[in-house]
Design brief:
With about 90 residues, this protein is an all-alpha fold. It is globular, with a radius of gyration of 12 Å.
Amino acid sequence: MRRYSRFHEVYCMEHFIEILRDAMNMDSSSALDGSSALAGLDGWDSLGKFMFLSAAFTDYGVTVEPGDLNAAVTVADLWILIEKSRQHV
């Protein structure tokens, strides 16, 4: 089991949010954190989902199943998908 410090967890989430922001072509001034609802994000459409799947593979080396992606409600849910997928690599 991996043991990370709280600092590492926060850094990883912040880095993930920046990757997500880039994938969805969001302005850097747009509010985005783990509790942000995906349904309320301008870039969370079919192209945004595709870009997320691409970023998950490119930046983290994981494949997220579309069914799991559709079940995600918040940005934190996406991060959990990445983390779960990384454990199976």
